[in-house]
Structure formats: structure tokens, C-alpha cells
Design brief:
Length: 332
């Protein structure tokens, strides 16, 4: 039998292996960072930002808004948006609500009015900070969220169409559905799915949030489980009514498909064929979205599933072509 190695030699060998592993790691890995003093913040929201190592030179910005009782860091850890940012190089902002219950304000008149105050103003300040301090692209800002965050997605798309280019709401309710006048943060009529209105009425609520706005309205993606008892399933169809009306398009789907078992996807396009509203109904599913893979479909809806922005540079004028060696069968 060979000689046994001394404990000293074994320790040295182990140390060399550990050293090589440490040196093999990246010098600095991306991490979630808290930002303070980011601008006007009426409700003292907290801001965390994730900038991936492979961030694009002028990156898009995604705002990912958590559920009640949650936090930005919890939504960072519990959703797939950060790993998708690693893949495609966009920035993710994670706001945190600081009031009791950690729900976002989607019910006050301030929150439901453009530049009116409350949580939306703080979130918009976060976006502007990222544009100014992380070279974010102000023309590619998107928002998504779950539950309270899904409701906030509807609020931000409705009141700040000049800031956000598209939204994806998981388990949300229509813009202003949760509105209250008694200072309460909860609207049981809406949460129970009992606030049913016409498309015109829902659309007017959005239009009245930003009087005089004549710019483009952001496309909206809507997700809901059919057995949701926290924010009842009728809110799914009410959102469809609202956003199709805002875009001036038919409530009749342009297409209906089944991307996966128990999923029904309806799409609503304008007269030019551009997708404006996309809705996913998930059968036999409660208040538990997004499920695995659904965040990636939101990113695809935003057009963020690429590492380079679309080429918008017009082609240059071609030079003067010439031909030589012309024959009956070819030319140079």
C-alpha cells in the first residue's frame, strides 16, 4: 500500500482547491440594491433595483410590484423577473409598500389621478431615477405585478400612459375598481367581483384620470385564475371591457387559443392588426399567479425577450449600381 498523505499536505491541497474555486467566480455579481433619496415619494415607499451584469447599454426598465404582505426583495426572490433580466439585460425596479398590511394604494383619489400623489408618484420617481442614474431607456418602461401589484399595474397604466409603455397584471382588478371615498384601502364590492359596469363607464374612468391626454395608450396583458376567491374572477372580464374600450377596439377576440391545458388566451387587435389587449384565463387556479413560465410570457408581450432593441435607423440611400460583362446568361 502507498504512504498515507500527512494532514498538513491534505490541508494544503484542500486550500488550493478552495482558492481556485474562489478565483473562478466573477469579480462582482449582480445583486439587489436599495436606493434612497430617489425623488418625490409622498408615502415613503422603499426602492430596490436589480441591474444584471450583462445590462444593455441603454436598458429597458421593468417595474415589478409585489402583493399585499409582501416586499420588493420578497418579489425579487419569489418571481422569475430577475432571472429573465439576467437573460435579456433589462433593469428591474422592485417597490415596497410600507403601510400596515403592505398593500399599495389603488383606492384613493390621489392614486387614481395623474400626478395626484400617493404611491404612484413614488413609483414614477423610481423610474425617473433609473433613467437618470442607470441610463435606463425612458421610451421602454413597463410594469407588472401580482395581486395588489396587479391592481397597481392597472393604476399606473391608466394614470401614467406617458411613462409606461405596456402592462401585465396578474390577479388584478380594473383601474379605479377599488376606489373608495371613506379613506378605506379595501373595496369589498370590487374584490368580490360585484362591481360590473359597461365598457364605456370603465373606459371613462381611465380617460378622466389624465384629462387632456391624447397620446398613445399602453397595451395591456391580463392574467386571472377562474377559482380566485381573493380578487374574484369577474374582475378578469371587467378588465378586458375596460382596456378594449380605452383602445377603441371590439370586445370580440381577434383570436382564441389554448397555449397549455387549462389556459385560454384571447387577443384583441386594432384595425391594423396590432395587439392591444391579451388575456389569459387559467382554469381551476386560485390566487397564486404568476405560475412558472408566465413571467416569460409577460416579458415576451413587452418585447423584452431580446438583448438588443429593435433597429429603428432608416436605411441609407444606395449608391449608383454598375454592371459589366453582360451576356445572355448573366452579368457582373
Amino acid at each position: 500500500m502507498g504512504k498515507l498523505k500527512s494532514p498538513f499536505r491534505l490541508a494544503v491541497a484542500a486550500m488550493l482547491v478552495l482558492t481556485s474555486l474562489v478565483l473562478a467566480r466573477p469579480a462582482a455579481a449582480a445583486s439587489l440594491v436599495e436606493v434612497t433619496g430617489f425623488g418625490t415619494n409622498p408615502t415613503n415607499l422603499r426602492m430596490h433595483i436589480y441591474v444584471p451584469d450583462n445590462v444593455q447599454p441603454n436598458p429597458p426598465i421593468l417595474v415589478a410590484v409585489h402583493y399585499c404582505t409582501g416586499t420588493g426583495p420578497a418579489f425579487f426572490s419569489g418571481s422569475q423577473f430577475a432571472s429573465l433580466a439576467d437573460q435579456y439585460g433589462f433593469i428591474v425596479i422592485y417597490p415596497t409598500a410600507t403601510r400596515s398590511g403592505s398593500c399599495f394604494d389603488v383606492s384613493s383619489q390621489q392614486a387614481l389621478t395623474h400626478n395626484g400623489g400617493s404611491d404612484p408618484v413614488g413609483i414614477v420617481s423610481m423610474v425617473r431615477w433609473a433613467v437618470q442614474n442607470r441610463n435606463g431607456d425612458a421610451n421602454r418602461v413597463y410594469v407588472t405585478g401580482a395581486s395588489s401589484g396587479g391592481m397597481m399595474t392597472n393604476v399606473l397604466i391608466g394614470a401614467y400612459p406617458d411613462v409606461f409603455k405596456a402592462g401585465a397584471a396578474f390577479m388584478g382588478v380594473p383601474f379605479a375598481c377599488f376606489a373608495t371615498t371613506d379613506g378605506s384601502m379595501w373595496n369589498s364590492q370590487c374584490s368580490g367581483g360585484n362591481r360590473i359596469m359597461t365598457p364605456q363607464q370603465w373606459g371613462d374612468l381611465v380617460r378622466n384620470a389624465f384629462p387632456g391626454y391624447t397620446g398613445a395608450r399602453p397595451p395591456m396583458q391580463i392574467w386571472h385564475g377562474t377559482t380566485d376567491t381573493t380578487l374574484a374572477y369577474p374582475n378578469f372580464n371587467e378588465q378586458i371591457k375596460q382596456w378594449t374600450n380605452v383602445h377603441g377596439i371590439s370586445q370580440t377576440p381577434s383570436s382564441t387559443t389554448t397555449p397549455q391545458p387549462n389556459w385560454t388566451r384571447t387577443q384583441y387587435r386594432d384595425s391594423g392588426g396590432t395587439l392591444k389587449v391579451e388575456a389569459y384565463s387559467i382554469a381551476n387556479t386560485g390566487h397564486s399567479l404568476p405560475l412558472s413560465g408566465q413571467a416569460a410570457l409577460a416579458i415576451q408581450f413587452f418585447g423584452l425577450n431580446t438583448t438588443t432593441p429593435g433597429d429603428t435607423t432608416p436605411p441609407t440611400t444606395p449608391g449608383t449600381p454598375t454592371a459589366s460583362n453582360i451576356t445572355s446568361t448573366g452579368a457582373t
